Amino acid sequence: MKFFNFHLMPYAAADLDAIEKNGSAWVTFSNSHYDPEKGAELYHNYLDELEYAEELGFDGVCLNEHHQTAYGMMPVPGLLAGALARSLKKIKLAVLGRALPLVSNPLTIAEEYAMLDNLTRGRFIAGFVRGIGAEYHAMGVNPGFSHERFHEAHDLIMQAWTRPGPFEFVGKHYHMRYVNPWPRPYQDPHPPIWVPSQGSADTIKWAAKMGYTYCQTLSPIAVVAGFFQMYRDAAEAAGKPATNDQLAWSNSIYIAETDEKALREAKPHLEALSNRFLKMPIEMLLPPGYTSVESMKRIRAAKVVGKVQTAEDLVNSGVVLVGSPNTVREKLEEYQELAGFNTSLTKTQFGTMPSSQARTNAAAIAEEILPYFRAKASTKAAAE
């Protein structure tokens, strides 16, 4: 199994009571609550944590994109990826991902990703997402065109990367007289494409058909297993049988000497993430037209919308892994067998967790978890 350190870069200094009073950390939570001095410190701490991940031996690091929220301070992830592209020397760098329907010109993403691919000399992973419902409120984009704009933007970017320019692209939402981006991607024909999703059936089936790696966002492990099986079924139907290497699970892991200590230390930060930073009205998470009725029901079930969850709830449902090294190893092995994935997108920092605690946690995971699963993979490969 490969382990990527996935950072959400939350505004950990947020006033949780103010978020609760506002009803959400998204879109309507006034930026008057943002302190630039604290925010600047967090940015530098978070970049330090991701650089530390390479020192610890993680396989890669991940960033993502969100707008107008204390949940994650990465409205322009390419800026942070650019900084990391120079400081990281060996491991992969993934942006999971850029929200294609939110931009007026997808060629800017083609250019941005190609630059990052060159800066990393081919260690870049390109993430494509539609963006969650709240993004459409934040950016003033009609969610009813979400699917159309996503697929058209995807096609434009792929042509820009693989077809010699200049050429003209004519679509319903995007019309480009000249498509001829410089630079071209470093990897031939383009960087690997990863597609994160909350559990949209349309997105899962499309990713499988395209042969792209599918990344399931934070959900109970039984639900994750169902989504991954949907991907396998769709890949089989498309004549492209899937392997576990094409499936990645986004999780949070926290380790301490005992289960009790781990839960005690992680609890306030997990509950801040689940019950404050992630909280939003259903009409903001899933605005009309954003997704199909089938997918809406599935996403709502996976996210347990509107339900306050304790850290114990999150652990028991398999949304997060918290405990001693033995407990976490056993649980992660059990979950890997159940759902069938070979990449763990692991948040070692979450919610309000301070940097010192996050670094200690990352080091414990690197020491206690990574070697076990690498040895297991090596043994399996040798047997085959």
Verbal overview:
The chain is α/β, with parallel strands linked by helices and 384 residues long. It has 15 helices and eleven strands. The chain has a single domain (2-383), classed as Luciferase-like domain (TIM Barrel). Helix 4 (107-119) crosses helix 6 (146-162). The longest helix has 21 residues, at 36-56. The model has no long low-confidence stretch (mean pLDDT 95).
- Identify the overall geometry: globular
CATH class: Alpha Beta
Distance between the termini: 16 Å
Structural class given helices, strands, pairing?
Answer: alpha/beta
What is the name of the CATH superfamily?
Luciferase-like domain
CATH architecture: Alpha-Beta Barrel
- Strand percentage lies at 15-25%
Major sheet attributes: 8 strands, parallel, barrel
Number of strands: 11
Ranges where pLDDT stays below 50 over 5 or more residues in a row are none
What series of H and E elements makes up the topology? EHHEHEHEHHEEEHEHEHHHHEHEHH
What is the gist of this entry?
The chain is an alpha/beta fold and 384 residues long.
What would the keywords be for this entry?
single chain; 384 residues; alpha/beta; TIM Barrel; eight-stranded parallel barrel; two-stranded antiparallel ribbon; 15 helices; 48% helix; globular
